[in-house]
Predict the structure.
Amino acid sequence: MALVEVENEGFVRIITINRPERRNAIDYETAERLQEAFTVFAGDRDARVAVLAGAGGTFCSGADLVAVAEGSTNRLEEDGHGPLGPTRMRMSKPTIAVIDGYAVAGGLELALWCDLRVMEADAIVGVFCRRFGVPLVDGGTVRLPRIVGLGRALDMILTGRGVGAEEALAMGLVSRVVPAEQGRAMAIALAQEIARFPQVCLVNDRASTYEGLEIPFDEALRNEYHHGRISFAADGQEGARHFRAGKGRHGIFDD
């Protein structure tokens, strides 16, 4: 049985953590397989959006602490990939997490690594590793405050409490809340919608958004301009002609 399963639906790559007997906790080997899967996705021109999911009704419960207690530790080094695999990768294409069951500790960090998060109504997220003295080392202290703000991030990080779907949506932690057992289908549908847009413009706007968080405002505006020139050269003139012909107006997109 593969620790990480990979499927394709058109331009969408679906990557599933497959350790349901451990609530998809990630040990060293699973982290390696997950890193490999996203490395392949990053280099595959036929895959435009990735959906990250967990098998068996749970997204991910974080690092496999049972394996750690038995002496098998995840990778923990300053450089290279993260303890859970791809969490230090800077993807150039969109990623979507499917949060069902629990996305806690490192599982929350994996979800935060993705661009968008689709959460089922009965799911829970939280920094549960607070209870065991296990630190956030897969970007949780960096990404969480950027997504929800400092105050909300500290509330989650310091208390380790569980957060339900409606609260997660209200604080901007997740992008969509859907009924139980519909997260995977809804995330794939969202990914397919994103994959239909002109991709050069999409990936450049995404890159400009992330890069703008790390540089001064005026420099970010110049950076946006340079990304925009590339996009307009690739997609802009054709896009304007499509608009004039009626494509894309009022939410209507034709293949």
About this structure: The chain has a mean pLDDT of 92. The first helix runs from residue 28 to 43. The chain is about 45% helix and 15% strand. Strands lie at 4-9, 12-17, 49-54, 95-99, 102-104, 116-120, 124-126, 163-164, 176-178.
